[in-house]
C-alpha cells in the first residue's frame, strides 16, 4: 500500500471539495446547471461528526460533476477503498418526461439501472418543462411525476423532487438542498465507518512485524482529509493528533535505527507551518517517514486546521511546545546534523509561528485571559528566538558586543554549547578574516562600568568556547587539553601577563578574554592552523561563521549574521518584540528585563534618550518591588545616560538612589564616587535647580521619649535625629524642618531652621532647631529641607529609630508620634492675696501674695508691684518670701495661738528676704516650682477719722472705704515671654468700730454713755487706755479726765468680738465758742497681736523687738435732746381701713403751735409769722398727689392755735409703701415734735379686678 | 524567563518546557510524562544550587539566602535573583488559580527549577526557592518549616511586618533547614 503514497498526494492536491455526481439522463444539465450551482456552497449543512453527533457546517463547498466527466470516469476501481473520500457523495438524477408511456417503457428501466447500485446515495429531480399556461402539458407532467414518485420514493425516504423550469418555486430548492445534504451526510457516515473499520484493523496489527506506518498514515490522513473537505475541522484535527501520537510511538521504539533527516539544503528553515514544503514521497523511509520532516508536516497540518478554526492562540501554544520538544529531539541527533542546524531551525520556527499567528490573530472577541496568554506565548517565542540568535552571534564573534546583563547571562551561560560531531575548522585561506576577528576582539571594551564600579562581568558562555571548540575537534587529544589548561593557569598566575596585556587591555577584569588570547602573538604568524595545534578564538569564530554559512539557507538570517550592524538590528527587533509582547501580557518583569537589553543597545548606539527612558522603566519596577540587587545593577547605567543627556535633576536623583541602596551592594569607594558627583553638581551652576528628594538617603526622627512640651507662646529648642546615608561627611548650607500640626492639616506649615550650617556625619546626627512660639496643638515632623551648595533637597523619609540601613523604610508607614506638644493657653501661674480679712489702716502691715506656679517653672520670673492710690509700700523693709506649704502646715498652730492670744513668731525653714528695687523683685530660683508666699509691707493711708455711730440707728460703714488695690505684673517664662497681670484688692480697716448708746438717763441729769467697741480684725486687741474728749454741751461728771476706772485696763478684745466701756457724762451749757469742738472724740491706746497669715497683726516696725502702743481715735456724735418744741405735728388716721390702688385717699396732718413764736430767738427769720410753709415729700412713683405739694397755711402765732393740712393722694402701686411725709422747711427740726408720729409704711391693696384703671407708664 | 532546555548529560532532558497550566494540553503532558528509566539511578551526588527568597506583599524581597552547597559564584547571585524575580510573573498568574500553598516546579530555567510556597495569610507572602534538586518532599518540608519560623518572626512585637528580616537566628535556622532538607 505504500506505493499509494504518491497517487494519494496527487489526489489530495487535486481534490478540495465534496463531489456531487449529476446523472443527466435527459440532457437537462445545461439548462439547470446555473440554478444548481447557485445553491453552492451550502449555507447550512447538518452533518454528523465522528461520534455521530450532528454538527452544523456553514458554507459547505461542493461541486457538481457530470457522471460523464472524465474525472469520475478515469478511476481505477482498486483505489476506491483508500481514496474513497474523493468519490461523489450524492448522485442527482436529472430526468424529464412528458409522456406516461415513454416513462414506463424507456425512462423507468433506465432509472432502475442507474439507482440499483446500493452504495450510492441518489435522488431524482424531475424537470418539468411545461409552461404554466399550457394546462395540458402541466397535467401531463404532474401525472408522470406522480408515477415517478410511486416507483422510486419509499415511505422511508423521499427520493424525488420536481422542478418547474418556468415556475419559481423556492420550495423546490430548499427541498433539493436538504436532499443533497442528507445524501452527503449518509455517504459521509458510511465512509467514516468504513475508514474507522480499516484503521481499527490496522491498529490491531501495530505490534506485528508486518505493520507499516505508511498504510496507517494514508488511511488516517484520508479520513482526516475527508473531514476537512466536509469542514469538520475538529474531527480532522483529532485525526492528526492521533496520527502524531501514533507516529511518536513508532519513532520512539528503539527497534531499528532510522534516518532522522534534516540533512538537505534548506532544512534549517523550519517548515512547521508549511505542509507542502517537501513531498511526503521524499521523506519516506522503509515503511515510515523521517522524523525531521514528518513531525513538521504533522504540525503544519494541525496548525492549518487550527487556523481554519480561528484558533491562532492554540497554534502559538502548540507551536511553542512543539519547538521546545523538537529542539530536544534535534539535540539528540545533533552530531549527525549540520553545525548549529538546531539553533537556526529554532530561530526560523519561532519567527514563523510568530508571524503566522500574528497575522491570523485579530484580537477581536477573546477573553482578556486568552489575549494575555497569546501575548505571553509570543513573548516566549520571541525570547527563545532571541537567545538562539545570540548564541549564533556569539559563535561568530559578536559576543564581545553583547551586554553582560543578568538576563543575557542567565540565558546564555546555562545554555550548553552546540555539540557537533566535529567542531568546524577554519580553512587555511581565511587568515584575513581571522585577523579581522582578532581586531574586533581586541578593540572591544567589555563592560566598562560607570562610576568606576568594579564588577566581575557576568558570563555569557557556559564554559570557555575556546576549550569547548578545541575539545570537540576530533584530532585533539586529552593531553592537549590539559596543556591548554596549563597555559591558561600560567596566564592567570601572571607569568605571561606582559605578553598578553599588550593585546588584551581588559585581561584583568575578564578572565574569558584572557583565555581567548592565551596563545599570544606566537601562533599568530602561522596562518594555517595545523590539526595538532589548538585553534585560537578568532579562528574558532571564523570557522563557525563559515560553517554557519553552509548550514543556514535562510537569507534573512544569514544577512542578520553577516555584519555587526545587521546583527544588532535583528537583535533589537527580537528584543523589542519580546518586550512588547511580555508587556502586553502583563508579564512586566519579563518585559522589563528585556527593556534593559533594549536600553543597553540604545546606549551603545548613542541613543541616550531612548536608553534613559527604558532604563527608567526598569529601575522603576526594581525599585518599586525593592529588588535592590537588580536595581544596583541597572541604576549606574541610567545615571550615566542622564549624565550624558545633561539631565541634572535625573542624574542627581539617580545618584541619590544609588547612595540609598543597601551598603553591601557598592563598595565605599564607589559610594564616595556617587557622593562626590552629587556634591560636584550641587556646587556647580545649575540651569534649572530642582529640589531633590533624598527621602531614602537622609532620614530623620524625633528623639525617643515623650515629646517636647511647650506652653502656648513659648519658644523652645527641638532636637531631631538625622541619619545620613552618605558615605562621607557632607556639609550642608542650611537645614530646616517643618512641623505639621496633627489637628489641622490645611494650615500652612512653617519651616524651622537650624541655626548653624551643619555637617552631617555618616550615620546618626543630632540637629538642634530653635523653635519659635507655635500655636497650640501637637506636632509631628514634616519635611526635612536643606541645601547642599545651590541644591535644595527635601526628605520625607522618616526612620523608625534605627539606622536606615537596617530598616526597610519603604515598607512601613510614617508613624505619627508627635515630637512637640504646645498646650492651649492656660493659666500658668496664679497670684492671690494670702489673707482674706482686713488689715490695719494707717499702719505698716504685711500683705501676703500667694504665687502659685501651675506646672510651669517661674525661673527668673520678675514681679512688678504697683500699689494703687492711698497705699504705699514701705520700701525700707525687706520683702519676705516663704514656702507656702510650710505655712499651710503650721496654719492650725497659728489659729490656735491666736485663740490663745499667744502669738509668737514662727519662722519657716524655707524663707528668704528680698529687696524691692524700682517696684520690681526677682523671684529666687528655689521658688520657681513651688507655691510661695510673698510678704511685703504696705501702709494704707486714710486721712479721715473713724466715726462712731449710734447704737440705736446703726450705720454700717461702706466696705469700699477700706479697699486698696495692688497691681501686679509677673514676667516669667524661659524667655520672659509670659506675662501675668492681676490687680489684687486688700481690705484695710480700723481696728474697732465704735457705737454709742445712752444706757440710762439718771434722775440727776447724768447720762450713762455706753461706748461699744466692735473688733474689726481677726486679731486680739489689747486696749491699754481710753478717754473721750467731749464736745460742746457735754461735760464729764466730776473732775475726771474722761477715763473710766483705770484698773479695767488693759481690756482684751478677741477677734470679731465686742466690748463696751461706760462713761458718765451730763449735759453742760452751750458756750457758742468757736474753738470748742463740735464732735466728741474717743481716744484709745491699744496694741494688736495677730498673725499676718490670718489678718491684722502687729505693725511692721524697723526694730521688731519693741512693741509700740497704737492710738486709735474715733469721733462720737452726741446729740442733745429736743428742748423747746414749738410746733407739734400729728398724723391723723386714715378714713378708710384699707387703701387700694387708684382709690383716692386723704392724708391729714394736724399742726399745733405749742409755744408763742415770739419768744423763740431763732424764729426771727420767719417773715410771715402767721404763715406756715409746708411741703409734702413723696415718692412720685408710688403716689399721685392731687393738689398742691407745697404751700402756706395760716397758723396764728397764738399758743395752741391749730390747723389741719389735708392732701388728697392716689396710691399707684400696691404693697407696703412709704406714705407721703409732711415737712416744714422753715422750722428747725429741733423745734418740731412729731406726736403721734406718722406710720413708716402703709399697706396698699391691689385694685379691684373689675375696674379698668390705667396706670401711667412712667412718672 | 524562557530558556532553552539542553541536557548536560547525554540522557534525554527531563521535563523540558516551562510548566504552565494553560499550555498544558494533553499532547504535551503525554510528551512530558515519560521519565527516562535511568534518571533516578543516575542522579549524581553533587553540589546543589539553591537560592531562597521570601517575598512580602508588594513583591518586596525581605529575606534572601543562597543555601546551596555549591561553591558560591559571585555572579550567580545576580542571576538567581533575576530568575526568581521574573518568576513572580508566573506566580501572580498562578497563585489565584489554585488553593494549594506549595506550587512545585512552577518555573524552569534550564536545569534550575523554581518552587514556590504561598502562605495562607491574608497578606500574600511568597517563599520562593530556586533549586536544582528534585527532592520535592524535602522542598515541601523545607518550606513548611521555614513558614513556621517566619510566623515566629512575625510574632515578635519588634518586627514590623513587611520589613526586612535581619534576625541572625532566623538566618541560621533557615540554613540549617536547607542543609537538612535540600
UniProtKB/TrEMBL annotation, chain A:
- Xref: InterPro entries: TRAPPC10/Trs130, TRAPPC10/Trs130_C, TRAPPC10/Trs130_N
This chain's source organism reads Dioscorea zingiberensis
Q: What is its main location?
A: Golgi
Entry keyword set: Golgi apparatus, Transport
Give the UniProt record's GO annotations in the biological process aspect. Answer: early endosome to Golgi transport; intra-Golgi vesicle-mediated transport
Region annotation Disordered: where it falls in the sequence: 488-530
**Name this protein carries in UniProt:** Trafficking protein particle complex II-specific subunit 130 homolog
Residue ranges annotated for the TRAPPC10/Trs130 C-terminal domain, each copy included = 1139-1222
Name its cellular compartments.
Golgi apparatus
**What PANTHER family would the database entry show?**
EPILEPSY HOLOPROSENCEPHALY CANDIDATE 1/TMEM1 (PTHR13251), TRAFFICKING PROTEIN PARTICLE COMPLEX SUBUNIT 10 (PTHR13251:SF3)
TrEMBL record, chain B:
Instruction: Please provide the Gene Ontology terms (biological process) for this protein.
Output: endoplasmic reticulum to Golgi vesicle-mediated transport
Pfam families for the chain: Sedlin_N (PF04628)
Coiled coil ranges (UniProt) are none
Q: Mind telling me which GO cellular component terms the entry cites?
A: cytoplasm
Tell me which InterPro entries the record gives.
Longin-like_dom_sf, Sedlin
Q: Which domain of life is it from?
A: Eukaryota
Q: Where is this region: Disordered?
A: 1-40
The entry's protein name is Trafficking protein particle complex subunit 2
Lineage, please? Answer: Eukaryota, Viridiplantae, Streptophyta, Embryophyta, Tracheophyta
Amino acid at each position: 500500500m505504500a506505493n499509494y503514497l504518491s497517487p494519494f498526494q496527487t489526489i489530495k492536491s487535486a481534490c478540495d471539495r465534496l463531489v456531487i455526481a449529476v446523472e443527466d439522463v435527459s440532457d437537462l444539465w445545461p439548462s439547470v446547471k446555473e440554478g444548481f450551482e447557485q445553491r453552492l456552497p451550502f449555507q447550512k449543512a447538518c452533518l454528523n461528526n465522528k461520534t455521530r453527533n450532528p454538527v452544523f457546517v456553514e458554507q459547505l463547498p461542493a461541486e457538481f460533476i457530470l457522471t460523464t466527466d472524465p474525472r469520475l470516469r478515469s478511476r481505477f476501481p482498486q483505489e476506491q477503498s483508500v481514496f474513497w473520500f474523493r468519490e461523489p457523495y450524492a448522485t442527482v438524477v436529472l430526468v424529464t418526461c412528458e409522456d406516461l408511456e415513454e416513462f414506463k417503457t424507456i425512462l423507468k428501466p433506465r432509472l432502475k439501472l442507474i439507482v440499483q447500485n446500493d452504495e450510492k446515495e441518489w435522488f431524482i429531480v424531475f424537470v418539468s418543462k411545461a409552461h404554466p399556461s399550457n394546462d395540458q402539458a402541466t397535467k401531463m407532467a404532474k401525472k408522470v411525476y406522480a408515477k415517478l414518485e410511486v416507483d422510486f420514493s419509499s415511505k422511508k425516504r423521499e427520493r424525488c423532487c420536481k422542478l418547474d423550469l418556468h415556475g419559481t418555486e423556492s420550495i423546490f430548492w430548499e427541498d433539493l438542498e436538504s436532499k443533497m445534504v442528507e445524501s452527503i451526510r449518509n455517504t459521509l457516515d458510511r465512509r467514516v465507518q468504513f475508514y474507522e473499520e480499516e484503521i481499527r484493523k490496522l491498529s490491531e496489527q501495530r505490534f506485528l512485524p508486518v505493520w507499516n506506518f505508511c498504510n496507517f498514515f494514508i488511511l488516517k490522513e484520508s479520513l482526516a482529509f475527508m473531514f476537512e473537505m466536509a469542514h469538520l475541522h475538529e474531527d480532522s484535527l483529532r485525526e492528526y493528533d492521533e496520527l502524531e501520537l501514533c507516529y511518536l510511538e513508532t519513532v520512539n521504539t528503539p527497534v531499528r535505527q532510522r534516518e532522522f533527516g534534516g540533512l538537505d539544503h534548506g532544512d534549517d528553515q523550519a517548515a512547521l507551518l508549511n505542509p507542502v514544503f517537501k513531498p511526503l514521497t521524499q521523506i519516506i523511509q522503509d515503511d515510515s517517514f523521517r522524523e525531521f520532516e514528518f513531525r513538521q508536516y504533522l504540525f503544519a497540518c494541525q496548525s492549518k486546521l487550527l487556523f481554519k478554526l480561528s484558533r491562532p492562540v492554540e497554534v502559538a501554544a502548540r507551536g511553542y511546545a512543539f519547538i521546545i520538544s523538537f529542539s530536544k529531539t534535534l539535540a539528540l541527533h545533533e552530531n549527525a546534523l549540520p553545525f548549529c542546524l538546531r539553533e537556526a531551525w529554532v530561530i526560523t520556527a519561532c519567527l514563523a509561528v510568530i508571524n503566522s499567528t500574528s497575522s491570523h490573530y485579530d484580537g477581536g472577541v477573546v477573553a482578556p485571559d486568552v489575549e494575555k496568554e497569546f501575548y505571553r506565548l509570543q513573548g516566549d517565542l520571541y525570547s527563545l528566538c532571541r537567545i538562539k540568535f545570540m548564541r549564533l552571534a556569539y559563535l561568530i564573534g559578536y559576543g564581545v558586543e553583547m551586554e553582560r546583563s543578568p538576563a543575557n547571562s542567565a540565558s546564555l551561560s546555562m545554555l550548553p554549547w552546540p555539540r557537533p560531531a566535529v567542531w568546524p575548522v577554519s580553512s587555511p585561506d581565511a587568515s584575513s578574516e581571522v585577523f579581522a576577528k582578532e581586531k574586533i576582539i581586541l578593540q572591544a571594551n567589555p563592560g566598562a562600568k560607570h562610576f568606576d564600579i568594579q564588577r566581575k562581568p557576568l558570563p555569557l558562555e557556559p564554559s570557555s568556547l575556546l576549550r569547548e571548540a578545541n575539545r570537540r575537534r576530533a584530532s585533539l587529544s586529552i593531553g592537549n587539553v590539559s596543556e591548554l589548561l596549563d597555559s591558561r593557569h600560567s596566564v592567570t598566575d601572571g607569568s605571561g601577563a606582559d605578553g598578553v596585556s599588550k593585546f588584551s587591555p581588559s585581561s584583568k577584569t575578564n578572565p574569558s578574554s584572557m583565555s581567548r588570547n592565551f596563545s599570544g602573538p606566537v601562533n599568530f604568524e602561522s596562518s594555517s592552523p595545523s590539526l595538532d595545534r589548538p585553534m585560537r578564538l578568532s579562528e574558532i569564530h571564523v570557522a563557525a561563521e563559515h560553517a554557519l554559512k553552509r548550514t543556514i539557507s535562510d537569507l534573512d538570517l544569514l544577512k542578520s549574521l553577516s555584519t555587526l550592524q545587521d546583527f544588532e538590528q535583528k537583535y533589537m527587533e527580537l528584543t523589542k518584540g519580546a518586550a512588547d509582547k511580555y508587556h502586553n501580557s502583563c508579564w512586566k518583569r519579563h518585559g522589563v528585563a528585556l527593556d534593559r537589553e533594549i536600553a543597553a543597545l540604545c546606549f551603545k548606539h548613542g541613543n541616550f534618550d531612548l536608553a534613559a527612558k527604558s532604563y527608567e522603566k526598569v529601575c522603576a519596577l526594581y525599585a518599586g518591588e525593592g529588588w535592590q540587587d537588580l536595581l544596583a545593577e541597572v541604576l549606574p547605567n541610567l545615571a550615566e545616560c542622564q549624565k550624558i543627556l545633561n539631565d541634572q535633576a535625573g542624574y542627581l536623583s539617580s545618584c541619590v538612589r544609588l547612595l540609598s541602596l543597601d551598603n553591601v551592594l557598592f563598595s565605599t569607594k564607589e559610594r564616595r564616587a556617587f557622593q562626590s558627583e552629587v556634591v560636584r553638581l550641587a556646587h556647580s551652576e545649575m540651569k534649572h535647580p530642582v529640589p531633590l528628594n533624598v527621602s531614602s538617603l537622609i532620614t530623620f526622627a524625633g528623639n525617643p521619649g515623650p515629646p517636647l512640651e511647650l506652653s502656648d507662646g513659648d519658644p523652645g529648642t527641638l532636637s531631631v535625629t538625622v541619619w545620613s546615608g552618605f558615605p562621607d561627611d557632607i556639609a550642608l548650607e542650611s537645614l530646616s524642618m517643618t512641623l505639621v500640626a496633627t489637628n489641622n492639616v490645611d494650615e500652612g506649615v512653617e519651616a524651622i531652621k537650624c541655626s548653624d550650617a551643619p555637617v552631617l556625619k555618616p550615620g546618626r546626627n543630632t540637629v538642634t532647631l530653635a523653635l519659635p512660639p507655635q500655636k497650640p496643638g501637637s506636632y509631628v515632623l514634616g519635611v526635612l529641607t536643606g541645601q547642599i551648595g545651590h541644591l535644595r533637597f527635601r526628605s520625607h523619609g522618616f526612620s523608625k529609630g534605627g539606622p536606615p540601613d537596617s530598616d526597610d523604610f519603604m515598607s512601613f508607614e510614617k508613624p505619627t508620634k508627635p515630637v512637640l506638644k504646645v498646650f492651649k493657653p492656660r493659666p500658668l501661674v496664679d497670684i492671690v492675696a494670702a489673707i482674706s480679712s482686713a488689715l490695719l489702716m494707717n499702719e505698716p502691715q504685711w500683705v501676703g501674695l500667694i504665687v502659685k506656679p501651675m506646672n510651669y517653672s517661674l525661673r527668673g520670673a520678675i514681679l512688678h508691684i504697683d500699689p494703687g492710690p492711698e497705699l504705699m509700700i514701705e520700701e525700707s523693709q525687706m520683702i519676705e518670701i516663704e514656702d507656702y506649704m510650710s505655712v499651710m502646715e503650721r496654719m492650725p498652730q497659728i489659729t490656735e495661738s491666736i485663740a490663745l492670744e499667744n502669738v509668737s513668731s514662727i519662722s519657716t525653714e524655707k524663707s528668704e528676704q528680698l529687696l524691692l528695687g524700682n517696684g520690681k523683685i526677682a523671684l529666687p530660683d528655689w521658688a520657681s516650682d513651688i507655691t510661695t508666699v510673698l510678704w511685703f509691707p504696705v501702709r494704707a493711708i486714710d486721712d479721715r477719722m473713724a466715726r462712731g455711730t449710734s447704737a440705736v440707728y446703726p450705720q454700717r460703714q461702706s466696705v469700699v472705704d477700706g479697699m486698696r488695690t495692688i497691681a501686679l505684673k509677673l514676667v516669667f517664662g524661659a524667655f520672659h515671654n509670659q506675662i501675668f497681670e492681676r490687680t489684687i484688692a486688700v481690705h484695710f480697716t480700723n481696728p474697732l468700730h465704735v457705737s454709742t448708746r445712752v444706757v440710762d438717763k439718771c434722775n440727776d441729769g447724768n447720762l450713762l454713755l455706753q461706748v461699744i467697741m466692735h473688733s474689726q480684725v481677726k486679731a486680739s486687741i489689747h486696749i491699754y487706755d481710753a478717754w473721750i474728749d467731749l464736745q460742746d454741751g457735754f461735760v464729764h461728771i466730776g473732775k475726771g479726765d474722761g477715763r473710766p476706772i483705770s484698773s479695767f485696763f488693759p481690756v482684751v478684745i478677741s477677734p470679731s468680738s465686742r466690748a463696751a466701756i461706760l462713761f458718765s457724762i451730763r449735759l453742760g451749757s452751750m458756750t457758742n465758742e468757736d474753738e470748742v469742738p463740735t464732735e466728741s472724740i474717743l481716744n484709745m491706746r491699744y496694741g494688736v497681736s495677730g498673725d499676718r497669715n490670718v489678718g491684722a497683726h502687729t505693725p511692721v516696725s524697723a526694730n521688731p523687738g519693741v512693741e509700740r502702743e497704737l492710738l486709735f481715735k474715733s469721733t462720737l456724735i452726741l446729740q442733745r435732746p429736743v428742748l423747746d418744741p414749738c410746733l407739734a405735728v400729728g398724723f391723723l388716721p386714715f378714713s378708710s381701713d384699707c387703701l387700694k390702688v387708684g382709690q383716692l385717699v386723704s392724708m391729714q396732718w394736724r399742726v399745733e403751735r405749742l409755744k408763742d413764736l415770739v419768744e423763740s430767738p431763732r424764729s426771727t427769720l420767719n417773715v410771715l409769722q402767721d404763715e406756715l410753709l409746708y411741703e409734702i415729700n413723696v415718692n412720685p412713683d408710688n403716689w399721685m398727689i392731687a393738689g398742691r405739694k407745697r404751700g402756706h397755711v395760716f397758723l396764728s402765732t397764738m399758743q395752741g392755735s391749730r390747723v389741719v393740712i389735708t392732701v388728697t393722694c392716689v396710691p399707684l402701686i400696691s404693697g407696703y409703701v412709704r406714705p407721703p411725709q409732711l415737712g416744714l422747711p422753715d422750722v428747725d427740726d429741733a423745734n418740731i415734735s412729731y406726736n403721734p408720729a406718722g406710720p413708716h409704711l402703709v399697706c396698699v391693696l391691689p385694685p379691684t379686678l373689675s375696674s379698668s384703671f390705667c396706670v401711667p407708664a412712667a412718672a | 524567563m524562557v530558556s532553552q532546555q539542553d541536557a548536560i548529560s547525554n540522557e534525554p532532558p527531563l521535563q523540558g518546557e516551562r510548566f504552565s497550566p494553560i499550555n498544558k494540553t494533553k499532547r504535551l503532558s503525554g510528551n512530558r510524562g515519560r521519565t527516562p528509566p535511568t534518571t533516578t539511578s543516575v542522579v549524581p551526588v553533587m553540589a546543589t544550587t539553591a537560592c531562597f527568597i521570601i517575598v512580602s506583599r508588594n513583591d518586596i524581597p525581605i529575606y534572601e539566602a543562597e543555601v546551596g552547597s555549591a561553591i558560591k559564584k559571585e555572579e550567580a547571585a545576580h542571576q538567581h535573583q533575576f530568575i526568581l524575580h521574573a518568576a513572580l510573573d508566573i506566580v501572580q498568574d498562578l497563585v489565584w488559580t489554585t488553593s494549594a500553598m506549595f506550587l512545585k516546579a512552577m518555573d524552569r530555567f534550564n536545569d534550575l527549577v523554581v518552587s514556590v510556597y504561598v502562605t495562607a495569610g491574608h497578606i500574600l507572602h511568597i517563599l520562593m526557592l530556586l533549586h536544582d534538586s528534585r527532592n520535592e518532599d524535602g522542598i515541601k518540608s523545607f518550606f513548611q518549616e521555614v513558614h513556621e519560623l517566619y510566623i515566629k518572626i512575625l510574632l515578635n512585637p519588634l518586627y514590623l511586618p513587611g520589613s526586612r528580616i535581619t534576625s541572625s537566628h532566623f538566618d541560621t535556622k533557615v540554613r540549617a533547614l536547607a542543609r537538612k532538607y535540600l
